[in-house]
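Most newcomers find our protein records easier to grasp once they have seen one. Sequence and backbone structure share a record, each on its own labelled line. Nothing more is needed to start thinking about how sequence determines fold. As an example, a complete record with its sequence and its structure tokens follows.
=====
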Amino acid sequence: MKPLKAFALCIAILAAATVVGASVPIIVATPGHMRAAMKLVTDAQHQLEKGDVAGAKQNVDAVLQRDPTFWPALYVRAQIYSHQGKYDLALKDCNEALRQDRNVVEAALMRANINARLGKYAEALKEYNYLVSLHPRKVTLARVLSDRAWFYATCLNGSFRNGQQAVKDAKVACSIMVWQDENMIDTLAAAYAETGDFNSAMQYAAQALAVKGISPDSAKAFQQHMALFRQNKPIRS
């Protein structure tokens, strides 16, 4: 990702995350007078990861009351709105974050994922492809490729599914993350299922389940996926 413009007063590094709807930790180097705002945003991110949506919203709202253009807060609030199913509001915050700086790849990726969820498949795919073409830093590229792979593997509209490309994207994503990201491995399993290779799908679903420290919610989702694969059924998201 390219650095932000000088007037933004911060350099953002958006770290790796998981599949659609996942939260993304933000690390931002800020000057002294903005550290308090960035701390509130970081606290909000951690609260959101722990399920404290109300606490996260309170912190980002406090930041945005002081500076409505502070894009890290806009980005976290977009995550909150997406979590709540308030997709129009989430898209509005993504758009505003990108208006502040068009290089905020994670905001664009969230917009693509929301559009996919809303059935705006052509818009979503166009954005995924554009983000890949930007050649962002590796950890961000891994998430972009994994999310595009999930889209190709599970899209409800068959004309947008592409199992072979999904496998390629997911393999690169897993390789970048040194095969330590359980959600990306699960995405590879979904991609193989879309190609009809259910043995490989079950193999990678099991590998995702075996990653140390996965959450109970992830484990439950992977087990549900494996149950589909045992029936020779792909995932439809």
